[in-house]
Amino acid sequence: MDQWEYRVVYVDTRGRISADGVEFIRQSGEHRTAFVSKYLSAMGKEGWMLNGIQLLRPDTAYYVLQRPLVAAPAAETPAT
Fold first, then answer.
1. Beta-carbon count within 10 A of 20 CB
2. Residue 27 CB neighbours (<10 A)
3. Residue 33: which region, alpha, beta or left (left: phi > 0; alpha: psi -120 to 50)?
């Protein structure tokens, strides 16, 4: 069975994205859609996929990202 990890991201399209305590701020002159698109593209390169959006207000939402959970390698047992 597939296992997933999730990341919930607060997105304010007016100029701020917050994820895991890290803030991403829109650059002066950068369009709102380009700002969000750039962030999602960067997350996609790390294996994250947009799973859902929970709208809070017209300009703010929670974005739920998911990616396959990578299992930690099992400890090797010495040969007997």
1. 7
2. 10
3. alpha
